[in-house]
């Protein structure tokens, strides 16, 4: 069986980690940013140099195609994303995308002709940090979201999505435009686990069978700006008091009630943000996750109730917006079986697991058979500049992806 080239893959990961590198050893390569465009260009140039064909669609999803014997067959799709969190790690997304490119290079080096084409994809804006929602490119690819709804979205830095999308497409004139959502035979995504399970059990490969559900809420309390020193409690319409009460309940009551529940308040803002002014408005986000759709909906309702009650108690207006609603998803048993068979053939231990993070495969899995391969990351840390994966796990993950791609690209 062809083998990945460890040195080439590790060098590639280092090359891309340099694009948007942060002093603490992570990356800041946010979606549709200058750094994101630089990474896309580097990958596209490497693909063209290998004789692969480069495509983009209207969501700026980037595809690198290595033809197979039968061009009439839908290609096998492998890959992930290149965008990162503002203080992200070097492996979230990049590992899957660059390992997928290494698969194409290893097949080319070995002169292997696959039955069907294999395409590598870098989906646009998986993280959803700069522009909400996350998984924007894969949702658009799967028809699960509408780009026209998002074009007017403002980034956290004020940029308009439509402008950044246009700039990204124009920055890669060598890429052929193609209609969004072309047929693929299957999709396999290699990714770091972003949790502690594989490392704790010392298992090199996770066979991901499902992804838990996610809801993103944006909550805004509006009260009345007033003087910090002269306004007694009974005169205050203080949105920070409402937010503090709501967040205390989310963290202290709702989450501890269910070991599978994950609730995170990741972003909070107060206006006018002056030290001696009672805020007029406080907004914050809640990321709610659960493997079970019914429990997820129940937690959403509970957060609504607690926020409405806190707003009323502090005589504030309460506005709650659902920004992202990702139902839990199960992956295709034939694809997970191909991953398990490959691990057996390579004598690599593996175990089935559910993903706590959402991924592009969750949406591609709605239009094609899909599954994921996880590798351990140190202390389960991710979305953190200290994110780390050992060379051995990187190579095991990429070699497993190569074996699965060979199985699934036979005509
Ligand atoms: O938030 C997530 O689950 C993904 O890592 N962006
Ligand atoms: Mn990711
Ligand atoms: Mn991520």
UniProtKB/TrEMBL annotation:
SUPFAM superfamilies: Bacterial exopeptidase dimerisation domain, Zn-dependent exopeptidases. InterPro entries: Amidase_Cbmase (IPR010158), Bact_exopeptidase_dim_dom (IPR036264), Peptidase_M20 (IPR002933), Peptidase_M20_dimer (IPR011650). Belongs to the peptidase M20 family. The gene is amaB_4. It comes from Shinella yambaruensis. Keywords: Hydrolase. The keyword Hydrolase applies. Signal peptide: none annotated. Residues 210-314 form the Peptidase M20 dimerisation domain. This is Zn-dependent hydrolase. NCBIfam families: hydantase. It comes from the Bacteria. GO terms for molecular function: hydrolase activity.
